[in-house]
Design brief:
GO terms for molecular function: lyase activity. The protein is mostly beta strands. It has 5 domains: 3-183, Sandwich (Jelly Rolls); 188-288, no CATH class; 338-409; 484-667, no CATH class; 677-758.
Length: 763
């Protein structure tokens, strides 16, 4: 910075050879006396040290010399006044830079220093240089600090001390020395000033650390170049990148004061690499808990192995967040699904293990397992190559013995499967734009309280969110959009799944799922699904529909409340049970389906909204509440809303207990479902035993196990039409399938009664 160069300012006064009429004997202001024609001063044209110079006899106690021109003083600009002088004869005076500080209207600025440091002349003929620096700021090295009101100065020197001495003075020099103060004036330091070399190979770790230490609150500038860092570097001050950095995969760059994706992108010059290094720093440093993607769209040319980004961290349990941006999967062979086929042995004594697995080394952790007796969403959680074993995320329902299995390893934009454990991880306000190229997020094998909120899982190829173990314990998914890549396909042709859960206590709230193969496959218990909308229809009429929500734990302790289930059904099964036949465990129960909207458009007449599918014999229902729901069909009717899929096994309806199916509304449903249910029965001719058939009304083909009320409507009469005041008893579970109740009177009667029956034993 030099105003003489950049702004063309004229700072140095004219030489004495041009005349002494611009050199004042006073303060330099207009009208003051000059040295022109002054008897004790003269221009000397040829001095051996100075060339042309001014010779002065000191006759005043303070002999002043001031240039009468107004030398401008700009804010932020610092000037150095430099004068060379020597004593010729007589008494030896003292010399200093002297000045007049001028403000608006030519007024002197009061209260400021106008004299520089004094220097005594101690010998004759010896050249002495006196200097002073003037400027607005009170910085170290500034002799004359004049503040913001000073606009110009009249500069020169003062001679003090004894009179009678003769001195010669060289031409006065004034120059802009603002550059000397740049390091303290500017709010940055440059790493190059501390030895950094941007050649791409030199290790600049020490130089970067030194620059950060010297910054002391200012910004560190990484100027042009490619700077290699061989070790970890943490900046405690803000950093600005003009150049870029390189570093080994296991070394991190921590930007403590400006930790966001924009700065990492500037630092590494590659968005994908920058994302990996920013995530690495997120886990390696405690000075920040979230990575702000700054609303950027980050192109991913392949899966991001999140563990590989932090190779020395296998487990992390502090809260961390990735938020505010878009990840965009770019078509590339790196997204190709991995496949393998191997034989393995399954035993119910080790229900989460496959043993004697051939080709085990080639089976990837996180692979989806398929084969005879394998339920949905069973993944490889870990493997032991030496022992030839695989650990599975779920049990297999019918796979005892040795058989062949297939393994598919989907490719995920964010793949956390390499971690052993990762807890309290949040992804918020992120659009995972899979575009039919990739899946979105794979969780690690273990962890707690993951939170996905306000995210878009946009057109995943296979899966949006996959849990391969128990990291889904307590998981929360809030206000997310699951947008299918298969929307144009028939519902039965779709294979994508929104998410799966293996553990307990998930909270799934206010999400929306559009035409995927299924919204969710949920194991475990203690889950709450609240305010979601999942729809899986197609443009076909009279067409089959698929399960949109699959619950795979019989005793589920699940609440499904206030949701919108659109063109699909809820399937409740036990496909993740190595011993699917009922033994002494809890059977189907502890499920509450309350206050939901169920809709189907153009569905086949055999479609049902709630389906139970036992994968083993002897199961029953103990604890089910289906109430306050709306069931509606358009473009055709369906037979009823409930069904037992007995393709593997049926339910033991004689053991139903504690079932409440009430207060629902039905539209275009041929047969309503209810329990307890009150029906009216009439006999026009007197009989002793009245057969009352409830079988069409009772859920899941259940039996009429209890009669809670029989109330005559009007008088009961005998064959002579005489009123009969008689009591009765009932025999439940009569007729084909036990769906009827017999009311037995002491004698034959006719008339009408209201009868209330239940499908269960309530207690």
């Amino acid at each position: 910075m030099n105003k003489a160069i950049t702004d063309g300012l004229v700072l140095t006064p004219p030489p004495f050879a041009n005349g002494l009429d611009v050199w004042s004997r006073g303060d330099g202001t207009p009208g003051t006396a000059t040295y022109d024609g002054y008897a004790t001063a003269a221009f000397v044209p040829a001095d051996q040290d100075f060339g042309g110079c001014l010779e002065v006899l000191k006759t005043e106690n303070t002999q002043r010399l001031r240039y009468m021109g107004e030398t401008p003083l700009l804010p932020g600009c610092y000037l150095q006044i430099k004068v060379r002088i020597k004593a010729i004869s007589g008494n030896l005076p003292t010399v200093r830079v002297g000045a007049f500080a001028g403000g608006a209207g030519g007024a002197a600025i009061s209260g400021v220093q106008t004299q520089g440091p004094s220097v005594a002349l101690t010998s004759y003929g010896n050249v002495v240089e006196v200097t002073a620096i003037v400027g607005g700021g009170a910085r170290n090295g500034v002799d004359l600090s004049w503040g913001r009101d000073a606009l110009y100065g009249h500069f020169g020197i003062d001679l003090t001390g004894p009179n009678g001495g003769v001195v010669r003075i060289d031409d006065v020099q004034i120059e802009d020395v603002t550059g000397a103060f740049l390091r303290t004036m500017m709010d940055w330091v440059d790493v190059k000033d501390f030895g950094a070399v941007g050649d791409g190979t030199t290790d600049n770790t020490a130089a970067f650390e030194a620059a950060d230490a010297a910054a002391d609150g200012r910004e560190v500038l990484v100027s042009d170049g490619v700077f290699h860092l061989a070790d970890n570097v943490t900046f405690d001050n803000r950093v600005r990148f003009q150049g870029t950095v390189t570093m080994p995969a296991d070394k991190y760059l921590a930007l403590s004061q400006n930790f966001d994706f924009d700065h990492y992108a500037a630092a590494f010059g590659d968005e994908e690499l920058a994302f990996r290094k920013a995530f690495q720093a997120l886990l390696k440093q405690s000075s920040h808990d979230s990575l702000d993607l700054c609303g950027r769209s980050i192109g991913l040319r392949g899966p991001v192995d999140m563990r590989a980004a932090v190779p020395d961290v296998s487990s992390f349990t502090s809260r961390r967040v990735i938020r505010n941006g878009q990840l965009d999967a770019i078509s590339d062979p790196a997204w190709t699904t991995g496949t393998a086929t191997s034989s393995g042995t399954y035993s119910t004594s080790q229900p989460y293990r496959l043993s004697n697995v051939t080709n085990v080394a080639n089976i990837e952790i996180g692979s989806l397992v398929s084969g005879n007796g394998v339920g949905r969403e069973v993944y490889v959680t870990s493997k032991n190559v030496g022992a030839q074993t695989l650990t599975l995320s779920q049990q297999l329902y019918d796979a005892v013995g040795t058989q062949s299995y297939s393994f598919k390893r989907f490719r995920y934009m964010l793949d956390f499967s390499g971690f052993q454990k990762l807890s309290q991880f949040n992804i918020a306000d992120v659009d995972l734009k899979a575009d039919g190229v990739a899946s979105c997020v794979m969780l690690p094998p273990a962890g707690l309280i993951w939170h996905l909120r306000d995210c878009f899982f946009n057109q995943p190829l296979d899966r949006a969110v996959t849990s391969i173990g128990l990291a889904c314990q307590g998981m929360m998914i809030d206000r997310c959009q699951f947008i299918s890549n298969e929307q144009s396909l028939a519902a039965t042709a779709r294979t994508s799944i929104g998410f799966n859960i293996n553990a307990n206590d998930a909270k799934i709230r206010d999400n929306r799922c559009i035409r995927m193969g299924a919204f969710a496959v949920i194991h475990g218990s203690g889950h709450m699904l609240l305010g979601n909308h999942w729809f899986h229809g197609d443009n076909l009429n009279g067409a089959p529909r698929v399960a949109g929500l699959i619950l795979t734990k019989p005793s589920s302790k699940i609440v499904i409340n206030g949701n919108y289930s659109d063109n699909n059904y809820i399937e409740w099964n036990n496909e993740h049970d190595a011993l699917p036949d009922f033994s002494s465990e809890l059977s189907f129960g502890a499920l509450s389906i309350v206050g939901n909207i169920f809709t189907a458009i153009g569905a086949a007449s055999y479609f049902r909204f709630i389906v139970i599918k036992p994968y083993g014999s002897g199961h029953f229902i103990n604890g089910l509440n289906v109430s306050g729901n709306t069931f509606k069909v358009t473009n055709g009717n369906i037979g009823r809303v409930d069904k037992v899929d007995d393709s593997v096994a049926s339910l033991d309806t004689g053991r139903f207990r504690n079932i409440n199916w009430s207060d629902n509304s039905y539209h275009a449903i041929n047969q309503w479902t209810q329990s307890p249910v009150m029906l009216s029965f009439s006999e026009s001719s007197p009989v002793e035993t009245w057969r009352c058939d409830f079988s069409d009304w009772l859920p899941f083909g259940g039996r009429a196990r209890n009669v809670t009320d029989v109330t005559p409507v009007g008088a009961l009469r005998n064959a002579n039409n005489v009123k009969q005041f008689v009591t009765h008893y009932t025999d439940p579970e009569e007729g084909a399938g036990g769906g009827s109740v017999d009311i037995i009177w002491p004698s034959a009667v006719k008339g009408k009664v209201n009868v209330t029956a239940r499908v269960d034993n309530p207690y």
